[in-house]
Amino acid sequence: MPPFFPLGYKDAIHQWWTSVTPTVAERNVISCIPYLREAIANSTVPLDNVPSADHPRAIETSTKIDPFGPRVWRSTMVELSGKNRALNEFSVERVGEPVDDTLVMLHGYGAGLGFFYKNFESITRSKGWKLYALDMLGMGNSTRPPFKIHAKDQVGKVKEAEDWFIDALEEWRKLRKLEKFTLLGHSLGGYLAVSYALKYPGHLNKLILASPVGIPEDPYAVNADMPEPEESTFQDEFTRDQRAITKGSDRNNMDVQNKVNQAGVNPPQKRPYPGWLVWLWDANISPFSIVRLTGPLGPRFVSGWTSRRFNHLPTVEAQTLHDYAYSLFRQRGSGEYALPYILAPGAHARRPVINRIQGVGRQVVQPATETSPAMKETGFPVVFMYGENDWMDVAGGLASEEKLKQAKVKALLNSTDEEKRNENGAARVIIIKKAGHHLYLDNPDEFNSVMKDELEETRRHTLRDRAKA
């Protein structure tokens, strides 16, 4: 059995001393993207041609190098209102084609847009699409303003923590002049994508939730005064060997419908997490704080996660992602401090998505006036994606699928003829084989294939609506 922290003390100190900046680490990850990599290699000054957070620019891949191009790959820092508020943005656009639809990608907790490096190229083969990947405010290489909560009650604290991220996303949307787009969120990004859909209705064509956190209801997580439940397998994120996960089935290869049938039958039990871990969580001491406090030993501490999480990748890419992860983890704390307000220890939501999901795609876009009735959303597709060996429970997605379908039936009973004609609500759960929580990285080929199908379906709907107008 390999050591829990495989990086030796001497190597850790050397990496700490010689480590690259976060923006250079992002640049190195971007350099791994197919066709963009070849275009960079053919340049006389390779590093100067890699778009990154500290090097906003665009590079075009020609058809000589890129059989699916030409495409423009661009990095931009988008300034928001207020002090020290800006979002790091990476975009890909097809040259010589009209942009019919837009895909926006949000990463998970403590991560960054670079983790999607195996998806950008394949996804942007789809005609008529432009892709934006964002670092959420206070994470990745976006700016890191101080994170503060002013609310006194628990519900208010949760909403304020959510708003800290989704208000920045909405401001970015306005700056980019996007009226409608498809939103993909992974893990915490999926949770926040649902919150965005509910607070800012009328702007989504489709919602894709990749192993979203915080869906199932758990009475212990909702009430801070109660003990925490046992059912979470959150610790698997740090202990499971990804090479084994991507080679074959493990936990979720059972009939997924059995999981939703069993969901909620047994009440949660008290979690055997040590008291010190719960104390650290509730005291808002993030794991990244420990990385920063350990100084020269930080790379060794991070290697305990990266050595397992990336060991299914080629050695060079695994090392590049380790460097990237360490560069993000060691930065000034900001958005990471939102986690204990949103989730209880073990990744159970304090404001569970399952209690709100039925409202997605059913919000009032324009309130009623004296002369006109209220305008409501008439549904849009919601897709849940899980790895077959995901530590996030697929039963939450299946239960959400059922609630969304029931919401559609209810809406159709009370809708006008026009609303019925415009009805577009749908929900489905998709399992990605040989993948865990980071399904987009564990089995990118299957993940990208599913994404291609979802984007093509959305574009057909867009073109159909445009033809009717």
UniProtKB/TrEMBL annotation:
<dbReference type="GO" id="GO:0005743">
    <property type="term" value="C:mitochondrial inner membrane"/>
</dbReference>
<feature type="domain" description="AB hydrolase-1">
    <location>
        <begin position="102"/>
        <end position="228"/>
    </location>
</feature>
<dbReference type="InterPro" id="IPR029058">
    <property type="entry name" value="AB_hydrolase_fold"/>
</dbReference>
<dbReference type="GO" id="GO:0042171">
    <property type="term" value="F:lysophosphatidic acid acyltransferase activity"/>
</dbReference>
<dbReference type="Pfam" id="PF00561">
    <property type="entry name" value="Abhydrolase_1"/>
</dbReference>
<dbReference type="GO" id="GO:0055088">
    <property type="term" value="P:lipid homeostasis"/>
</dbReference>
<protein>
    <submittedName>
        <fullName>Alpha/Beta hydrolase protein</fullName>
    </submittedName>
</protein>
<comment type="similarity">
    <text>Belongs to the peptidase S33 family. ABHD4/ABHD5 subfamily.</text>
</comment>
<dbReference type="GO" id="GO:0004623">
    <property type="term" value="F:phospholipase A2 activity"/>
</dbReference>
<keyword id="KW-0378">Hydrolase</keyword>
<dbReference type="GO" id="GO:0035965">
    <property type="term" value="P:cardiolipin acyl-chain remodeling"/>
</dbReference>
<dbReference type="GO" id="GO:0006654">
    <property type="term" value="P:phosphatidic acid biosynthetic process"/>
</dbReference>
<dbReference type="InterPro" id="IPR000073">
    <property type="entry name" value="AB_hydrolase_1"/>
</dbReference>
